[in-house]
Design brief:
The protein is of the alpha+beta class. The protein has a single domain (12-226), classed as Fumarylacetoacetate hydrolase, domain 2. Helices cover 15% and strands 32% of the residues. It has 5 helices and 18 strands. The strands form 5 sheets. The protein has a 6-stranded mixed beta sheet. It has a 5-stranded mixed beta sheet with strand order 6-18-17-13-14, with no helix packed on it. Strand 1 (12-14) and strand 2 (21-23) form a beta hairpin. The termini are far apart. The structure holds manganese (II) ion (MN).
Length: 227
Amino acid sequence: MTYIFPPQEPTTLPINGSGELFPVRRVYCIGRNYAAHAVEMGHDPDREPPFFFQKNPNNLDTSGEFPYPANTSDVHHEIEMAVALKSGGINIPIEEALDHVYGYGVSLDMTRRDLQGQAKKMGRPWEIGKAFERSAPIGPIFPASEVGHPDQGHVEFKVNGETRQEGDLNQMIWKVPEMISYLSDYFELASGDVILSGTPAGVGPVNKGDDLEASVEGVGVLKVKVV
Ligand code: MN
């Protein structure tokens, strides 16, 4: 049998300091995982069950450029630590969850906030606000064998050198092992899955020409130009 047209190449992420690549399977994103961000979006920061949405694997973009997308006038930045899985399964216990993590990276969950807001109001899915082309700029993956499993560390996002978002990984409402365990109760996780772990407070708009700088202590710095 032959393909009727060539299949898409898999999306891959570079592994920091090596020529190896991490092939991406799925992208899960957690919502409202820092209390201060939940409050700024008008929600109760209590520990309700987590919720997730997905981006498309090929929304991940390592080019260092973010093209301002169509059909919006309010694109927001959300800095997030990315968790890259080397294995998976179902019903993963919390205490075994980190065994499935290959490494970590710095990413942005770029959001067409106006379209997301309309979708929320109408009770519709969020894809139109979240899962558009190149909506998830991301840097290289740092293997856990080198950087460990960071559960604390400064998270900071700057636009043109000015700090807009600040927080600490230890402020996550749902910690990385809990996220993996919870997701695996509802989805079969597998090698190549990437989880964006939520954003601290301070989200806001970006404009064409902006220089974005996202840093997660111990996991690196991601620089992106809005074009
Ligand atoms: Mn987000």
